[in-house]
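INFO batch 0412 | record 1 of 1 | parsing
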Amino acid sequence: MNLLDQFGPPVLPPGLEPLRAEVRDFLAKWGATYPAEKRALSWMGFDPDFSRALGAKGWLGLSIPKEYGGHDASPFERFVVNEELLAAGAPVTAHWIADRQSAPLLLRHGTPPQKQRFLPAICAGEMYFCIGMSEPASGSDLASVRTKAERQGDGAWLLNGRKVWTTNADRCQAMIALVRTDAASERHDGLSQFLVDLALPGVMIRPIKDLSGHEHFNEVTFEDVRLDADALIGVEGEGWAQATSELAFERSGPERFLSAMTLFRCLVAAVGPEPDARQAFEIGRLAAWLVALRSMSISVTAQLAAGHDPVWAASCVKDIGTGYEQDTVEVAMRLIDSLPPGAKTATTRRVLAIVQSMAPSFSLRGGTREILRGILARGLGVR
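INFO prediction complete | emitting tokens
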């Protein structure tokens, strides 16, 4: 597929509006007393009860087959549900990683017992996963991971090493970890993925407090953690290919440009229906950028629906999207003193403070800007 063709026609299939209306009605009832300050956390808000409620509505595991507790829906239906959740600032992070990438990965590469054990619980909003990729000395350079799993005589594995920046590891039941299974290998070779029960002996989790005071980042240490033979996901030594296909799910969704949506909505509400020239210019520019990003994300969703691995296009969405999110903060900072006094402006100030503290992470999580642009350069043949 030509790279430019990866962003063509960004049109959602017909028939999705009843679903969108149902989700909006659910969110309107749920969010009547949910303050903007909590909505500002966007998809980092953690609420297991809310995740289970979504599971009960059938809005998790939408594209997972019914035999595993899913709903055999298209990626487009999942896009609509998630777009509405993110636009509302709903607290989705408990189930987010499991639903977004762990479930599709297991569906594609997992064994029948793995699918039967984990997928129904993910679809019910009752089992939460974290990602074990980055390490203290191997952040953006993912191919240099040193955490290792050594096969034992009985077929089991012994896991040793450390993962860091592991979102919600302290509140998840399982991790999908990328580790080295061939001690003599280098870079992309000799890597494999494993299912790690975080309650196993030898697993130590240390929360890391960030600038906003939250502790969703974690450092996870493995000391002689014994994994059963069936903890291996897919094919031994194929972990790099599996992980990079998983990243297409992580980098292409609406969460890559809607993290600052609550701030944008508060800003628009505070400005009101009669903006001055500067306010109209800044908000209009953000709105146009948002429309373009949404179109790009829908195009990537179409590729996923067609069975492609849109790594290049997903990297585009993530790179441009996080730039948009961070620029939303910059625009709000430039306009905040021009807003009329009142409750809406006071709320905007509080929301700005929250999103501003998180904004540096937008271009780090899910792949740094430098890594993404390297992928884009290789795809364009200029590197």
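INFO post-check: The CA atoms of residues 56 and 124 lie 6 Å apart.
INFO record closed
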